[in-house]
Amino acid sequence: MFGLPLSTTLIMSGVIAFWVIYTAVFYFTTSHWAAEDAPEEPRGGEDRR
C-alpha cells in the first residue's frame, strides 16, 4: 500500500479497524439509553429563577 512495508500496512489497517469497531460498539451501547435516565425538569415550561 503506497510503497510501505507490509508490517506498516498491517499495523495501520489494524489501528483503523480497531477504531471503527470501538466507535460502532460505543454508539450501539449508548444509543439505547432510556429517557428516564435523564434528569427530570420541573413541569410548566417557565423558567423558575
Automatic annotation (TrEMBL):
Q: What is this protein called?
A: Uncharacterized protein
Origin organism is Sediminivirga luteola
Q: Where are the transmembrane segments?
A: 6-28
Task: Provide this UniProt record's keywords sorted from A to Z.
Answer: Membrane, Transmembrane, Transmembrane helix
Highest taxon, organism lineage:
Bacteria
Phylogenetic lineage:
Bacteria, Bacillati, Actinomycetota, Actinomycetes, Micrococcales
